[in-house]
Amino acid sequence: MQIKQALKQINFKILFAIFLTLLIPTIYKTFRIFWLGSFPDDSQLNIASQLSWINLIYEVIQESLILPLYCVIGNCKDNRERSNRIKTSFLVIVIFYLVVMVFIIIFAKDLVNLLGQSNGLINETITYIRLETVAALFLTSWKFFIIVITIYSKQIYLYIILISQMSLSILFDTFLVSNLNFSAKLGANGIAITNIIVNLVIVGLALILLKQQDINFFERKKWSFKWTKIWFKQGLFSGVESFIRNLVFSLVIIRMVNLVNQQGNYWIANSFIWDWLLLPSLALSDLIKRDIGESGKKSIENNTCGYILIVIALISLWLISIPSWKPFIKYVLNAKDYNSIYNIVLIQTGFYITFLFNNCIFDSTFYGYGKTSYMLIQSICINIIYYGIVFTLFLLKLFVPNLLNIVLMFGIGMVLDFIPSLFLFIWLIKKEKIKIKFKNFEIINKNKKNTNYLINILLN
């Protein structure tokens, strides 16, 4: 398959729309980091950085309930049943998030203390976490609607909502967060208040737009929940996997970063990587989930070559952009310790190259094809075994954390994660008799008794 022909298989219109759903929030989030960096000390950055662990809790729920919807809604061809699945899944997600929201609000103080936040910032951090927890309910609803709008290929809806979201966020941040004379100068808490207001508005806007697709969440019709058995079965594996991964990240990575007093720098470095450098690949990942969720085996066979070519192009762009990182971190992100942040990002670059293939090709295929059990297997291999060993060494004081050690530890974990992911991807291709179309060859299923025997031990 020639390169041009391989790329023709990719729906670049939807890819661009998904990219914008990630880019526009990144732009106003960058404004926020700039405003927080303009305060006299780094206390507001340290407070805002604690949102990273609260996001991990919501990431578990998102990967349990929302991401499997690419498969269970995307492959539903009957319009009435698809509408039913959208409405019933939204109700379940809202109820679940309400329960979690109440839990976090009640136990916010205990959670903040557990993760070792600086004593002088604990009270402000608790208030911030509680406000962001309320905002997260509406943000999650918005993420749900992104999947629905993407499945219906209504890019114009995304553009309308995204422009509204960015405009309102920048407006409210200017008056609530910034260090300008007319601002309330609420710092991190101002960000949380902005999120509550803006997310509530865009959820209302999304409901109005989806009504144009005959998806009316308020009409009085009998809803059926029978289909949720499939949803919960897929969500169980991805949820347990996400819980293990994020629990380990909280107890090992975030706690160690807090202990060495590098919360602000690590948070900015992580934000730069995930909000800017990984942005195109995250959009590609969502597209792959959507395509495979709708077309299944056919999408894997016809599109995987094109996906790989795009990943290679994204890696090249990442490397080419290195000279621009330091001035961007210094002037755009307004970071005082920009050299340390730049070094963190530079060290992690090699490790994230493996992550690009892992996340875009392997994980997205597993999600889209409904094979979330494979995600759990790879998580056990890395998060239980590898990080379990590291954490034991830390408790025995044989591993003394500093910023460099933490960055290398996390990076090595990403590289090791690539191994079981590749192994399971090959197993999926063989098991499902999938023939990926490349230029001069195909990955054809062949009987390899020893390989099959080992994989069967893992999966059965």
Automatic annotation (TrEMBL):
Keywords: Membrane, Transmembrane, Transmembrane helix. The chain crosses the membrane at residues 12-31, 51-76, 88-108, 128-149, 156-178, 190-210, 304-321, 341-362, 374-400, 406-429. This is Na+-driven multidrug efflux pump. It comes from Malacoplasma iowae DK-CPA. The gene is norM2.
